[in-house]
């Protein structure tokens, strides 16, 4: 909770005064598809669901100041941490349940992030972009 939820709160609190003075800003938080629940890591899932709630609340609070607040929710990504914690056969089984049958690469998040930071998303706030190869399709 201190890192996954308090971290985004503190970062937002730090940048909002500057964004308010300039009359605009973009905040992009990072959640996870774990926010939709899962059989393990309850504390992690709850903290990432909290990030989505924080995003939605901050979007309503800051919209009048020209500040948008959105979230990216990645699925399984090929990171050093994931590869060391999750057995390869489990990653294969998870990938097989997705529309795109491969584990994500951190670079797969770049397009969504660039979009949320650009003027192209100026009328989008309080939203969560799921970038998971189609594992969770709400």
Descriptive report:
A 3-stranded parallel beta sheet has the order 1-2-3, with helices on both faces. It has 5 helices and 3 strands. The protein is elongated and about 50 Å long. It has 138 residues and is an alpha/beta fold. Strand 1, helix 2 and strand 2 (67-74) form a beta-alpha-beta unit. It has helices spanning 6-22, 42-62, 80-85, 88-96, 110-117, and strands at residues 25-30, 67-74, 128-131. Helix content is 44%, strand content 13%. The protein has one domain (6-131): NAD(P)-binding Rossmann-like Domain (Rossmann fold), CATH 3.40.50.
CATH topology: Rossmann fold
- Count the domains: 1
SSE pattern: HEHEHHHE
**Mind summarizing the main beta sheet?**
3 strands, parallel
Strand content: 5-15%
Secondary structure tally, helices: 5
Mean pLDDT: 93
Inertia-based shape: elongated
Measured on Cα atoms, how large is the radius of gyration?
A: 16 Å
Helix/strand/pairing class, anyone? alpha/beta
* Oligomeric state of the chains present here: single chain
Estimate percent helicity. Answer: 40-55%
Q: Could you tell me how far the N terminus lies from the C terminus, measured between alpha carbons in angstroms?
A: 25 Å
* Biggest sheet, spatial arrangement of strands: 1-2-3
Low-confidence stretches: none
Named at the architecture level, the CATH assignment is: 3-Layer(aba) Sandwich
CATH class: Alpha Beta
What is the number of E strands? 3
CATH H-level homologous superfamily name:
NAD(P)-binding Rossmann-like Domain
